[in-house]
Amino acid sequence: MKEHKKPSQPLLYYYGIAMLIWLLFNIFIMPLFNKPVVENVAYTTFVNMLTQKQVSEVEVTATKIAFRSNKDDTTYVTVPMNDPGLVDRLLASGAESKQILPKQMSPLVSWVLTLAIFIALGQFLSRYMVKKMGAGAGNFMSFGKSNARVYVPAQTGKTFADVAGQDEAKEALKEIVDFLHAPEKYTKIGATLPKGALLVGPPGTGKTLLAQAAAGEANVPFFSISGSEFVEMFVGMGAAKVRDLFKQANEKAPCIVFIDEIDTIGKRRDNASGLGGNDEREQTLNQLLTEMDGFDGKKGVVILAATNRPDSLDKALLRPGRFDRRVPVELPDLAGREAILNVHAKKINLAANVNFNAIARATAGASGADLANMINEAALRAVRLHRDQVEQADLEEAVETVLAGYQRKNAVVSPKEKQIVAYHEIGHALVAAKQKDSAPVTKITIIPRTSGALGYTMQVAEEESRLMSKEEAFNRIVTLTGGRAAEELIFGSVTSGAANDIEQSTKLARAMVTRFGMSDTFGMMALETVTNQYLGGDTALACSETTAAQVDQEVMIIIRKAHDKALGILKDNAGKLNELAQYLLDKETLTGEEFMAILNEKEADNQ
Ligand code: ADP
Ligand code: MG
Ligand code: ZN
To answer: Which among 193, 281, 439, 519 could disulfide-bond with 459, CB atoms 3.0 to 4.6 Å apart, if both were Cys?
Structure first.
């Protein structure tokens, strides 16, 4: 790798300034030097000097008389008078008649002066630049100074106790903290310690929090900077900042350097485009790599970084000796969610009926940040309702607020639309309830939300599983198609209200075929790869076009089958569908128990 490539932009930048100064100099300063020395005098003075033979040269025009004295170098100017004796006097004085140019600095002198000033300026600027870029000392406008904040433990105030449900990540960081406290223990046995650890995971899972907690526990200086802070207004400053950051860190070792959102600078360099590309970011990244290689691992500088786009990082960053340790910070599981709720509820006044386990169950897929937000929303709701304690109902409502937005109680939904939504939602719920491998329905509502949802059906699995069987996957798709199927069955037409269901079911069916090996046609063939697993999980095709067309066909068949199954279930239970939809229209919200009670009572009637 070519390192220490001198940044080219900053030079350009300084040359720009130099040019500007030079221009200003030429416009405003030079004329002062070049100004001819001219003195206006009265006509009588001119005549007096003439008679005393003090005039050496003279030029007479219609509008002025310019002359030079033989005593000094001054050029004098006067206004001509109607003076018939002038010619005689001129001749008598012996003054030479010639064109008089204002005396000027010789062009050579002016150029030498300009050049000298220019060089001096260049010297000053380059010396200043070296100082800024190299040492980062001095405060002149603080260009290139890394704005890493130094946290001393008391300032972050965070410890590992504040982080819940990330036990593996905490263990990994504890080891690093331990190394900073007792490096001999590791070096004695010959182990080299990881120079850096990269925290990867979806947004809001506590990566930043973990790094802060590590600093709080380590009792060492903690430099924290965000990737975006490297890429600044002035080009070329990123590299300088990196240099400065590491210089500071070396001085303060042992310490922790934390680079948050490292993907902003650590993105894969594409050497394809020769035309500049993103030179700025590349220089910053190069500098980072250089610094990471450069410092002594035994000295006790540990670099932590966090990202939710590990796939986009430059491979050079991940190779051993740099961020050789990867610490996954995944979405919390059931126990993790409960623990996080407990951590954040510490300063909240809770009612006795609060059951965090139930909330944790209902929030599969929520991040730590979501959960923290839910606790706060619940507290706000309690205040709104003039209570001084947070109750379970507040938490339940907060879950929905965070997941689906606020209720829009006064949103105008026509009775016809309401009816369609009610049938749609009961369609989902009924199909779910009538299938074996599907999570129980816990809530159905047709109160619109600010997210745009006109209603929704919540299902909560009895126990959290990490594996999904082929049957479960298919049944999920059946449930997703249940809403649309109900609309078709009852109203004989369809609405746009199923767009989200369609998107989700297609995504799942596609994953079944291309990634889960759940189709008979392709078996265990990988046909797609996930490109950014932590942000929406976009996929890229990894097969030929013919195969891709076959995949589409296969996906279509799965969804068709699911839709047919849902329609069949609803046809068989049309009576219950009507009754439940009517009930939902009246009540707007049904709990899982109410739903099951009506469903079972109806079944009893039929027998
Ligand atoms: P990330 O950096 O992974 O995007 P943050 O660390 O910024 O996420 O998390 C945002 C907030 O969410 C934290 O300040 C904290 O309040 C809460 N949070 C996230 N994860 C956890 C966790 N595991 N334990 C406790 N709180 C958490
Ligand atoms: Mg973060
Ligand atoms: Zn739906």
So the answer is: 439
What's the 208 CA to ligand 2 centre distance in angstroms?
Answer: 4
Domain 149-328 class, CATH top level? alpha beta
Which segments of 182-253 does DSSP mark as H helices, in order? 183-188, 207-218, 227-230, 237-252
Neighbours of ion ligand 3 (CB under 5 A): 483, 501
CA distance 519 to 505: 15
Q: Which of 59, 229, 400, 425 is catalytic?
A: 425
Q: Which CATH architecture has domain 415-599?
A: Up-down Bundle (1.20)
Q: Which numbered ligand comes closest to the C-alpha of 210? A: 1
pLDDT at 99: 76
Instruction: Look up residue 220 and give its two tokens.
Output: 């060492």
The position carrying tokens 């970084």 is 305
With 0.85 as the threshold, say if the pTM is over it.
no
**The two domains 38-97 and 415-599 share their CATH topology (first three levels equal):** no
472 is catalytic: no
Q: Is the CB of 208 under 6 A from ligand 1?
A: yes
Q: Where are the domains of the chain?
A: 2-33+106-138, 38-97, 149-328, 334-403, 415-599
Amino acid making up residue 453: A
Q: CATH: 3.10.350.10, 3.40.50.1390, 3.30.720.210, 2.40.128.110. Which one for 38-97?
A: 3.30.720.210
Among 195, 301, 299, 224, residue whose Cα is nearest residue 255: 301
For residue 206, the one-letter residue type is G
Query: Could you tell me the fold of the domain covering 334-403?
Result: Helicase, Ruva Protein; domain 3 (1.10.8)
Q: For 270-328, what is each residue's pLDDT tens digit?
A: 654 445 556 777 788 888 888 888 776 667 788 899 998 888 888 888 887 788 788 99
Distance in angstroms (rounded) separating the CA atoms of residues 124 and 183: 44
Indicate the residue type of 172: A
* Nearest ligand 1 atom, CA 166: 23
The 3-state secondary structure of 358-413, one letter per residue: HHHHCCCCCCHHHHHHHHHHHHHHHHHCCCCCECHHHHHHHHHHHHHCCECCCCCC
Protein residue with least CA distance to atom 17, ligand 1: 369
Please tell me the distance between residue 564's alpha carbon and the centre of ligand 2 in angstroms: 44
Ligand 2 mean position, distance from CA 225 (Å)? 11
